[in-house]
Design a protein that fits this description.
Oligomer: single chain
Shape: elongated
Strand content: 35-45%
Number of helices: 3
Radius of gyration: 40 Å
Largest sheet: 13 strands, antiparallel
């Protein structure tokens, strides 16, 4: 027996000791958040060759022999980190995060980037998002941007703009990560309303109080323009509609072509409807009071109110009234109950402070030029969108036979003779206040806020004949959205008479303005966005976590504190957003537990202990044998 056997026993003792160190570290971190267990890998040592072996020797009538080798023990070959995901457990702390899938959080400390799966995060005294070691969590912050919209005040020849502050997440450059910082006492600035969205049904069957477009003997709507001795002139798209005189001196709309008919050569979308604009002073002088100024006022088919906000967050209430001007049947004949083509006029009023709708607080509507609210002071518009050579007008709300919109309620273009010049569909816009006297563009009187410009989104014009291509690559198939017109009413006995009772369900569904608000709480979304919940019921993205994934995560070196550092074998680092390009999702209010399998570790501990005991016994046996050899005077 030689010393090699002693060395083998010693190497076994050392290897088993290292294995126990690894096992002990795993067991001690069984409750460490985000901990990744390690496993020891072993390899045999170089062997002592007693014989190299030989091949067949047929001349000497001798076969081949195998090599004879005596091993010299074992060695620790590698300690590998097991990056298998641990169990994700809810904590109830909204700033705790766990990554469900691949990826690591990045933290900066002492000008060094570290990576971790332990997402126990808090805000420090300066609002920085930090880990328990004080490392700054890396990601993307939000910043305040200002949206600017042009506004022309034609009454005084001045130009101005409407500005709106908004918080925008600055994550366009994914490699530009920085310390995430949030002011826990932050105030979300007010945002002026720029758009109100509508949805619901305007009944397509004949309704009470249907108004003709013009009637000097009774209620009227400001729709047509009186021209010299010609009387009222229709201001409609004569390719589809025509206006026919009625015995009482008014006129009514009649259908010429299907409102969904494609007309080649028109603008995109190609189903624009033409309208004109009205001089309110002339209309009032000619017809007397409008429908809403009768005594009592004519009841509209439907109306809805919506609160909008100016640039200081002050609420204003607008009311939209819808009047059915006639029932459009084939060739002007009312069809049987059911979906058919129908036409409505709409008007917007500022009823802030419980005002009643009057021409004095009229903001816009069918047949009215955008900003034409000077009334008796000035027949021309006082506000517009600041677009040179363009005029914007309120249009009818016309519906196709399938109930979809055929007109968006607004048109744009240079006004021309009806039927000769097309004006293209556009979203109508109203302005608050209705009149501006102070150049170039005054704030709202007694408030100091900027003038409001609010788009009314009644929906996108749809087409009954399905998708079609008007220009190369431009396909339109809007379908039914926003306002629709179906016969949803019912016949009921009213005062002993079987009466059709219409069902109108139009309402303003959303608007994008709000007053200022203070930060109340925060929570993470699955894409790593930190959402701030404010007292004004707004939810705003305040920051977003950067998720990092190296080419070889096993190339990480453990540096303690649940952190990993890159090494020469880590490879390039992918920096991105959770849920993209194979990166995991962020689970807010949760933490990833240690992935240590305690049962497996205890089993390995028994094996390592038995191995250590066996190697110790081997060491003793070899030691005794060598001692005996020495006593006998035998060499090794």
């Amino acid at each position: 027996m030689s010393l090699e056997s002693l060395y083998s026993a010693i190497s076994g003792l050392q290897s088993d000791s290292d294995w126990l160190d690894v096992i002990g570290n795993n067991i001690s971190n069984v409750n460490t958040v985000g901990y990744k267990s390690s496993s020891a890998q072993f390899a045999n040592q170089l062997s002592l060759a007693l014989s190299g072996g030989g091949g067949d020797n047929n001349q000497n009538d001798q076969g081949g022999t195998n090599p004879m080798q005596i091993g010299t023990g074992t060695r620790l070959e590698d300690i590998q980190t097991n990056f298998q995901q641990g169990v994700i457990q809810s904590t109830g702390n909204p700033l705790d995060v766990a990554i469900d899938g691949s990826g690591f959080l990045a933290v900066r400390q002492d000008n060094q980037l570290y990576y971790t799966r332990a997402g126990t995060l808090t805000l420090d005294s300066q609002g920085y998002l930090v880990d328990p070691n004080g490392g700054y969590v890396q990601g993307y912050n939000s910043l305040i941007q200002y949206e600017v919209r042009p506004l022309n005040s034609a009454q005084n020849g001045g130009y101005g703009q409407i500005t709106n502050a908004q918080i925008v997440l600055n994550n366009s450059n994914l490699s530009d990560i920085q310390n995430i910082q949030i002011n826990p006492q932050m105030t979300l600035p007010a945002r002026a309303t720029t758009q109100v969205n509508f949805a619901g049904n305007l009944d397509s069957n004949q309704q009470p109080n249907v108004l003709e477009l013009w009637n000097a003997q009774g209620p009227t709507l400001p729709i047509a323009v009186p021209i010299a001795l010609l009387g009222p002139v229709n201001a409609i798209d004569t390719t589809r509609m025509t206006a026919q005189l009625t015995p009482d001196g008014g006129f009514e709309l009649k259908q010429v072509n299907d409102l969904a008919t494609y007309i080649p050569g028109t603008h995109n979308p190609p189903e624009a409807l033409e309208n004109g604009y009205v001089n309110l002073t002339a209309i009032k002088n000619f017809a007397g009071n409008y429908a809403w100024e009768q005594n009592p006022p004519v009841t509209p088919a439907n109306q809805c109110d919506e609160t909008v906000y100016d640039s200081l967050g002050t609420p204003h209430t607008i009311r939209i009234q819808f009047y059915q001007v006639n029932d459009l049947g084939t060739n002007g004949v009312n069809p049987a109950p059911g979906p058919n083509q129908v036409c409505y006029a709409w008007y917007a009023f500022d009823i802030t402070g419980n005002q009643q709708p009057t021409t004095n607080n009229l903001l816009g509507g069918t047949g009215i030029a955008e900003g034409d609210f000077a009334h008796d002071v000035n027949p021309f518009f006082s506000y517009d969108r600041g677009v040179v050579n363009n005029g914007y007008f309120g249009d009818f709300l016309w519906f196709n036979t399938d109930g979809s919109l055929a007109s968006t309620g607004g048109v744009v273009g240079v006004p021309g003779p009806p039927g000769l010049t097309f004006n293209w569909q556009d979203m109508p816009r109203i302005y608050l206040p209705a009149l501006n006297f102070l150049p170039p563009v005054s704030p709202i009187p007694n408030n100091g806020a900027e003038v409001m410009a609010v788009d009314l989104n009644f929906g996108m014009a749809g087409y009954t004949d399905g998708p079609f291509e008007s220009d190369p690559g431009m396909i339109f198939n809007a379908g039914r959205n926003g306002l629709i017109s179906d016969a949803e009413g019912s016949y009921q006995i009213v005062n002993g008479v079987n009466t059709y009772v219409p069902k109108n369900t139009v309402q303003a569904t959303t608007q994008d303005g709000y007053p200022d608000g203070t930060l109340r709480s925060m929570n993470f979304q699955t894409d790593g966005t930190l959402i701030g919940n404010f007292s004004n019921d707004q939810k705003v993205a305040l920051a977003q976590l950067a998720v990092n994934q190296p080419v070889n995560e096993e190339g990480f070196s453990q540096v303690g504190n649940n952190d990993f550092a890159t090494s020469a074998n880590t490879g390039a680092m992918q920096v991105g957003l959770a849920g993209t390009n194979g990166l995991g999702l962020v689970r807010g209010g949760s933490l990833e537990n240690s992935n240590v399998d305690l049962t497996n570790e205890l089993n390995n501990m028994i094996l390592a202990q038995k191995g250590f005991d066996s190697n110790a016994r081997m060491f003793g046996t070899v030691n005794n044998t060598l001692q005996t050899q020495a006593n006998l005077g035998l060499g090794s």
